[in-house]
Amino acid sequence: MAIGNHAVPYTLAQLSNVTKHYGGNTVLNGVDFEVRKGEFVALVGPSGTGKTTLLRILAGLEFANGGQAHVQSTTSVVFQDPRLIQAQRVWRNVLLDESSRRGARELAKAALRDVGLEEKLDSWPRSLSGGQAQRVAVARALYRQPELLLLDEPFSALDAFTRRGAQNLVLQLWAKYTLSVVIVTHDLEEALVLADRIIILSKGRIQSETRVDLPRDRDTTSTAFNALKRELLQQFSQGMH
């Protein structure tokens, strides 16, 4: 699967000096951040550093207490929990409240075909593996034809083999639809496999930003990959102090 870097001609989302508080707890403190067309960005950092809050602001699920947030694109979110409705067949989970529209099953089938689950159209969620359930969640997100796909640790509950397959799927969809993607992850290797740009957050601020210029597919055993991984691990550990 040879995937090249996308051109990044314009900005889809921009946060300027954004702050976010929950009670007396400051979660984001003066964050400047942008996502450009076709870009794949990873947000990395210890728990409680504001990664998911930043993602939720991009999705319009949270509002900043200060600064400005401009999102000029349609967005879809995939969470760690697939959040499938157990009483609905898979195809209805893909379309949710639009399942009564004309040609709904065919639309759901097309979305499921994109994630390799066309044969699960009429299955019940309880019959799916964890990896399959997460693929349905991705199909549901893609059905809405987003320009900006937001991923909140979607693969963290999967075993290593299934996780790598899910990562490859997202890369294929990113290339096919020229998506912009922002992923929240604790896994630096996952960030290096996927992203054009890795942002490490610490204590509600952006600690560092690293551009990943390694060619795709990325060889996790290569000298260049592991040198960059060591550099990021050092930055990551500094953010924990």
From TrEMBL:
SMART domains: AAA (SM00382)
Highest taxon listed in the record's lineage: Bacteria
Entry coiled-coil feature ranges: none
Domain ABC transporter span(s) in chain numbering: 13-228
The keyword Cell membrane appears for this protein: yes
InterPro entries recorded: AAA+_ATPase (IPR003593), ABC_transporter-like_ATP-bd (IPR003439), ABC_transporter-like_CS (IPR017871), ABC_transporter_ATP-bind (IPR050166), P-loop_NTPase (IPR027417)
Keywords for the protein's UniProt record, in alphabetical order: ATP-binding, Cell membrane, Membrane, Nucleotide-binding, Transport
PROSITE patterns linked: ABC_TRANSPORTER_1, ABC_TRANSPORTER_2
GO MF annotation terms: ATP binding; ATP hydrolysis activity
Transmembrane segments: none
Family in the record: Belongs to the ABC transporter superfamily.
Name this polypeptide is given: Sulfonate ABC transporter ATP-binding protein
Organism: Bordetella genomosp. 12
Lineage, opening ranks: Bacteria, Pseudomonadati, Pseudomonadota, Betaproteobacteria, Burkholderiales
